[in-house]
Amino acid sequence: MKKPYTMALPMFAGMAIGAVAIQALHAQAQRPVYMIAVNEVTNAEGYVREYVPPAQASLKAHGGTYVAEGLVTVIDGSLPGKRAIVVRWDSLDQVKAWFGSPEYRMARVAGDKYAKFNIVVVDGVKQ
Question: Number of structural domains, the chain?
Protein backbone atom coordinates (compact mmCIF):
# COMPACT_ATOMS: atom_id res chain seq x y z
CA MET A 1 0.00 0.00 0.00
CA LYS A 2 2.86 2.41 0.71
CA LYS A 3 4.64 1.72 -2.56
CA PRO A 4 2.62 4.20 -4.75
CA TYR A 5 3.27 7.00 -2.26
CA THR A 6 6.98 6.27 -2.11
CA MET A 7 7.13 6.58 -5.91
CA ALA A 8 4.93 9.68 -6.11
CA LEU A 9 6.87 11.78 -3.60
CA PRO A 10 10.24 11.68 -5.43
CA MET A 11 8.43 12.23 -8.73
CA PHE A 12 6.71 15.40 -7.48
CA ALA A 13 9.93 16.62 -5.85
CA GLY A 14 11.76 16.16 -9.16
CA MET A 15 9.06 18.07 -11.02
CA ALA A 16 9.27 20.94 -8.53
CA ILE A 17 13.06 21.11 -8.79
CA GLY A 18 12.82 21.06 -12.60
CA ALA A 19 10.24 23.87 -12.62
CA VAL A 20 12.44 26.04 -10.41
CA ALA A 21 15.48 25.37 -12.60
CA ILE A 22 13.58 26.27 -15.78
CA GLN A 23 12.33 29.50 -14.20
CA ALA A 24 15.87 30.43 -13.14
CA LEU A 25 17.26 29.74 -16.61
CA HIS A 26 14.50 31.77 -18.23
CA ALA A 27 15.21 34.71 -15.91
CA GLN A 28 18.92 34.56 -16.78
CA ALA A 29 18.17 34.54 -20.52
CA GLN A 30 16.19 37.80 -20.43
CA ARG A 31 18.18 40.88 -21.22
CA PRO A 32 17.56 44.07 -19.26
CA VAL A 33 16.17 47.19 -20.87
CA TYR A 34 17.41 50.72 -20.34
CA MET A 35 15.17 53.76 -20.12
CA ILE A 36 16.77 57.03 -21.18
CA ALA A 37 15.11 60.34 -20.34
CA VAL A 38 16.28 63.71 -21.65
CA ASN A 39 13.72 66.20 -20.42
CA GLU A 40 13.42 69.86 -21.36
CA VAL A 41 13.05 71.52 -17.96
CA THR A 42 11.44 74.96 -18.04
CA ASN A 43 11.35 75.56 -14.26
CA ALA A 44 14.15 73.74 -12.44
CA GLU A 45 13.01 74.73 -8.94
CA GLY A 46 9.47 73.42 -9.39
CA TYR A 47 10.71 70.32 -11.23
CA VAL A 48 13.13 69.39 -8.46
CA ARG A 49 10.68 70.19 -5.68
CA GLU A 50 7.41 68.72 -6.99
CA TYR A 51 8.30 66.11 -9.61
CA VAL A 52 11.66 64.52 -8.83
CA PRO A 53 11.03 63.10 -5.30
CA PRO A 54 7.77 61.24 -6.07
CA ALA A 55 9.00 60.16 -9.51
CA GLN A 56 12.21 58.70 -8.07
CA ALA A 57 10.32 56.95 -5.27
CA SER A 58 7.87 55.37 -7.71
CA LEU A 59 10.67 54.31 -10.05
CA LYS A 60 12.58 52.57 -7.27
CA ALA A 61 9.39 50.99 -5.87
CA HIS A 62 8.70 49.41 -9.28
CA GLY A 63 12.20 47.92 -9.66
CA GLY A 64 14.08 50.57 -11.65
CA THR A 65 17.77 51.08 -10.89
CA TYR A 66 19.55 54.32 -11.69
CA VAL A 67 22.62 53.69 -13.86
CA ALA A 68 23.56 57.26 -14.79
CA GLU A 69 22.32 60.81 -14.33
CA GLY A 70 23.71 64.24 -14.91
CA LEU A 71 24.72 66.76 -17.51
CA VAL A 72 24.74 65.63 -21.14
CA THR A 73 27.84 66.03 -23.30
CA VAL A 74 26.70 66.09 -26.91
CA ILE A 75 29.25 64.54 -29.26
CA ASP A 76 27.16 64.74 -32.43
CA GLY A 77 23.70 66.12 -33.20
CA SER A 78 21.50 67.79 -30.61
CA LEU A 79 19.31 66.91 -27.67
CA PRO A 80 16.33 68.80 -26.27
CA GLY A 81 17.60 68.94 -22.69
CA LYS A 82 20.84 69.47 -20.80
CA ARG A 83 20.49 66.62 -18.32
CA ALA A 84 19.70 62.93 -18.75
CA ILE A 85 19.04 59.83 -16.70
CA VAL A 86 19.55 56.17 -17.56
CA VAL A 87 17.57 53.58 -15.61
CA ARG A 88 17.96 49.80 -15.81
CA TRP A 89 14.85 47.61 -15.74
CA ASP A 90 14.42 43.86 -15.94
CA SER A 91 11.89 44.09 -18.80
CA LEU A 92 9.84 46.43 -20.95
CA ASP A 93 6.73 45.20 -19.13
CA GLN A 94 8.25 46.46 -15.88
CA VAL A 95 8.81 49.91 -17.43
CA LYS A 96 5.24 50.00 -18.71
CA ALA A 97 3.87 48.99 -15.29
CA TRP A 98 5.84 51.81 -13.65
CA PHE A 99 4.85 54.37 -16.29
CA GLY A 100 1.16 53.54 -15.89
CA SER A 101 1.25 53.30 -12.09
CA PRO A 102 -0.87 55.71 -10.04
CA GLU A 103 2.25 56.89 -8.16
CA TYR A 104 4.07 57.92 -11.31
CA ARG A 105 0.99 59.36 -13.02
CA MET A 106 0.50 61.70 -10.01
CA ALA A 107 4.16 62.74 -10.14
CA ARG A 108 3.88 63.29 -13.87
CA VAL A 109 0.95 65.72 -13.45
CA ALA A 110 3.31 67.91 -11.41
CA GLY A 111 6.19 67.32 -13.82
CA ASP A 112 4.19 68.36 -16.87
CA LYS A 113 3.97 71.86 -15.40
CA TYR A 114 7.76 72.19 -15.41
CA ALA A 115 9.13 70.08 -18.27
CA LYS A 116 8.61 68.44 -21.64
CA PHE A 117 9.43 64.75 -21.34
CA ASN A 118 11.49 62.72 -23.83
CA ILE A 119 11.72 59.09 -22.71
CA VAL A 120 12.89 56.08 -24.73
CA VAL A 121 13.62 52.45 -23.85
CA VAL A 122 16.30 50.34 -25.51
CA ASP A 123 17.17 46.67 -25.12
CA GLY A 124 20.32 45.76 -23.27
CA VAL A 125 22.92 43.67 -25.06
CA LYS A 126 23.84 40.13 -24.11
CA GLN A 127 27.00 40.20 -22.00
Answer: 2
Q: What is the CA radius of gyration of the chain?
A: 22
Q: Note whether 76 and 36 are same-domain residues.
A: yes
Q: What tens digit of pLDDT does each residue of 61-96 get?
A: 999 999 999 999 999 999 988 999 999 999 999 999
Strand partners, 34: 88, 122
Is residue 41 within 8 A of residue 81, CB to CB? The reply is yes
Indicate the length of the chain as a whole number: 127
Q: Domain residues for 3? A: 1-30
Same-domain check for residues 21 and 41 = no
Q: Say whether pTM exceeds 0.90.
A: no
Positions of the chain with pLDDT lower than 50, given as ranges: none
Read off φ and ψ for residue 10, nearest 5 degrees: -65, -35
Co-location of 6 and 64 in the same domain = no
Identify whether residues 93 and 72 lie together within a single domain.
yes
Query: CB–CB of 101/58 below 8 Å?
Result: yes
